[in-house]
Amino acid sequence: MIVSANVRLVIALLGTAFISFAGPIVRKVEPPNWWTDHSLNPVRLLLHGSGLQGASVASPGLTASRISVNEAGTYLFVDLDIPRGQNPGDYPLQIRTASGSTTAPFRLDAQLPPNGRFQGFSSDDVIYLIMIDRFANGDASNDDPATSRGLFDRKKDRYYHGGDLQGIIDHLPYLKALGVTAIWMTPVYDNTNSPNVRQAVNGQPIADYHGYGATDYYTVEEHFGTLDLLSKLVNDAHRIGMKVIQDQVANHVGPDHPWVTDPPKPTWFHGTAAHHINETWQLWTLPDPHAAATLKRNVLDGWFQDKLPDLNQEDPDVAQYEIQNALWWLGVAGFDAIRQDTLPYVSRGFWRDWSSALKKQYPRLRAVGEVFDPDPTVASYFQGGTTQADGIDTGIDSVFDFPTFFGVRDVFANDAAIDTLSKTLGKDRLYPEANSLVTFVGNHDVPRFMHEARATIDKLKVAFTFLMTARGIPCIYYGDEIAMPGANDPDNRRDFPGGWKGDPRSAFVSSGRTVQENSVFEHLQKLAALRAKLEPLRRGRFVDLAVGTNTWAFARESTSGTVIVAINNGAEETELSIPYGSDGLFQNQLGVVADFSVRDGKGVIRLPSHAAEIFLRQ
Ligand SMILES: [Ca+2]
Ligand SMILES: [Ca+2]
Ligand SMILES: [Ca+2]
């Protein structure tokens, strides 16, 4: 068929008309609600839709300003100023362009009462890390949801297994009985609904069951539950005196996030999927006074594994989006604290602004950052409370104590000399507050303790005795309390036995645990109870008393008393002497076959092989 020039002209005109006269469409408003009399005001909304070029925004009772729209007309930013004393309720947005108008929902809520919420954490706490997908399946109806069909397969270790928020709610009493006072759950953000092909392993697509690849920062992953269920979980935990720590990821999003192909601004990411810096993982360059700015840039702006889109917090709209998002989750769910993923990969100036905005609204809030590095000079650089050479105090209360973690594995699992660990603690002066560090013997990113070449049940128990009595805030990785095995990720994320209907046994009850599992569980339970009872174990000064090749004695001292911890890390029974003895009575607390006597004015402790005991000085 031959199309005449006139017909071609008409088609072209119709095409133009269709584009230029299409009215505005809004599919999403972020955040979908805000609060009356909030410390962050105005709130900057991000609308997602189409045909938004040249749009005006109005909402009666509120003042809209600072509108900006991306070239594609798919994203619109607008500041909404909320007058003090404004009533909660619906405040629909009226969006108008030359081609038409539409409305989009927006709501103002009254703030949740602070009673029992936003409590922060401290060295009085015992934290328990739960990988939501692998802990317990409380609701089989969300195992393979319609919106993301096909990502559920318990036989595949990188697919969803069905664990969810209801499963955690169901087992709060188990955690309470263990002595846990705070739970940290892996992220609840909605992750991709399709197989993740960009991060395929051995040619096989994976599922982002772990939650660290957000594709929507304002929705709960449908495999885990709903926002209402999340609020219920937090409320239920609070009711039994347990705090909840939210896992947040500000550094990057998942490769399937819609922003990757249609960014709200050209400067939304550090580069684009096609053109970006690759992450070098050279964390030491950040505190290094000799490192060129380009080396630091590689760490701050690089895309992980060439795949994970790196958000550009130097763009003020990105920074405000992320600060609002953090405040939004706290505000809707009542979380007590935040665990921040990949902290050092985001600029310290952002963390300063983030911390101060969050604490302005929630003064008791606490945050702990992941600084995955064995060197205390790197880890300490990111703990807030002091201004570093760059003139910045991050305001981040705590970091995970990876240096001590590596020492714990070397010493207690693999028989390295004890001073490997005591030398690490000897660098505590680098930290603004060493007793606020979160300590651990395992987490979801490293092989399990029991996977170490020379690990035994007795050694795990010694490691736990150290964890629960040394300075810091102990964090237990789910399953370590029953000595679960597992090599590197994802094998270290096996399903907790008994979390699934039809499991052959349940390790949530003592009758379902093996003798060895019970011995670790009961040991940890006893340690948690002692830590709760003996204030020096939580808040006392940490004092090294005696360090040998395989022996260690340290004290925790406060005005309320002295507690002494003695460790034999050797394969033979041994004695160690401490500079206490004649001036007090020492009672052992754990029931280990240990003996305390006084010889030549010094206390002498006799310990069996691979054992540790706690003594209370009366
Ligand atoms: Ca489920
Ligand atoms: Ca999803
Ligand atoms: Ca980054």
Total number of helical segments?
Answer: 14
Largest sheet: 8 strands, parallel
Q: Which spans have pLDDT < 50 for at least 5 consecutive residues?
A: 1-20
Give the total of beta strands.
Answer: 30
Helical content (DSSP H or I, runs of 4+): 10-25%
Intertermini distance: 102 Å
Q: Residue-averaged pLDDT, rounded?
A: 95
Supply Rg.
Answer: 27 Å
Structural class: alpha/beta
Order of strands in the sheet with most strands:
20-19-18-17-12-11-22-21
Query: What ligand molecules are bound, each kind once?
Result: calcium ion
Shape field = elongated
Percent of sequence in beta strands = 15-25%
Provide a descriptive summary of the structure in words.
It contains 14 helices and 30 strands. With 618 residues, it is α/β, with parallel strands linked by helices. A hairpin with a 2-residue loop joins strand 8 (93-97) and strand 9 (100-104). The longest helix is centred in the last third of the chain and has 19 residues, at 515-533. It is elongated, with a radius of gyration of 27 Å. It binds calcium ion (CA) (3 copies). Residues 251, 300-301, 310, 345-346 line the site of one calcium ion (CA).
